Amino acid sequence: MTTHSPLVRVHEAHFSYGHEQVLHGVSLSVNPGEILAITGANGSGKSTLLELIAGTNIPSHGHIERIAPVALVVQRPNIPAGLPLTVADVVAMGTWRTRAPRAQVRESITNALSRVGLPGFERRDFAQLSGGQRQRTLIAQGLVQQTPVLLLDEPLASLDADSREKIHEILRAEANHGTAVVLVTHDQDSQGLADRTVTLRDGRIAPHVILSGGIDL
Ligand SMILES: Nc1ncnc2c1ncn2[C@@H]1O[C@H](COP(=O)(O)OP(=O)(O)OP(=O)(O)O)[C@@H](O)[C@H]1O
């Protein structure tokens, strides 16, 4: 982990869906080169917090300081049923910012698919992939963006042990290159991978408690 200044700062963020307040004054920083895990029970506000960090939702009070571009890897993309998208099309959605020549973009798509264990999948129909293959396609979409901040919502949820291992290695490699990696997770293994874990409880950051016997709560 590096000691450079944060790439994202969340200041006292509040968020409501209609009358339901989901986040109550959450503050945190995301540093370059670290893997930060956001954990917590179902409904505690993890995905909502990730969306605020990504800028796809805006806090009702408080604010988010984004010093660098971010990429968000969602759990389930909003792709209308019946739209004939190939795997390459879905990964290419991550390249909208780039002005690189087409051949270079194609090469980055091919590389990203190889990295996530889907070599040669470019022309496959995205809708016909398995859940784990879709998840890895979305991770490839995040990787091609090459942003200093990579946010992932439950990236390992549908993956088998080998794929998890591969994605762990990729996330660690990204962090070693200075990327700030933030993942929402329930998964004990991913919490082990993280340099730092923040737990949400009912929309607030839970205090980190270490009992005298060394048990970390
Ligand atoms: N689009 C939405 N409209 C209304 N309420 C929502 C919406 N999205 C989430 N919520 C509500 O906000 C609360 C927090 O949801 P969120 O998805 O952020 O939690 P989470 O910790 O990521 O949950 P999980 O572990 O189940 O994915 C829940 O009560 C949920 O019902």
UniProtKB/TrEMBL annotation:
Write down the PANTHER family for this protein, in alphabetical order. IRON TRANSPORT SYSTEM ATP-BINDING PROTEIN HI_0361-RELATED, METAL TRANSPORT SYSTEM ATP-BINDING PROTEIN TM_0124-RELATED
Output the SUPFAM superfamilies linked to this UniProt entry.
P-loop containing nucleoside triphosphate hydrolases (SSF52540)
GO terms (molecular function) for this protein are:
ATP binding; ATP hydrolysis activity
UniProt source species = Glutamicibacter mishrai
Annotated protein name in UniProt: Metal ABC transporter ATP-binding protein
Which Gene3D superfamilies does the UniProt entry name for this protein? P-loop containing nucleotide triphosphate hydrolases (3.40.50.300)
InterPro entries on file: AAA+_ATPase, ABC_transporter-like_ATP-bd, Metal_Ion_Import_ABC, P-loop_NTPase
Residue stretches making up the ABC transporter domain: 8-217
What family does this chain come from, according to its entry?
Belongs to the ABC transporter superfamily.
Keywords attached to this Swiss-Prot or TrEMBL record, sorted alphabetically, are: ATP-binding, Nucleotide-binding, Transport
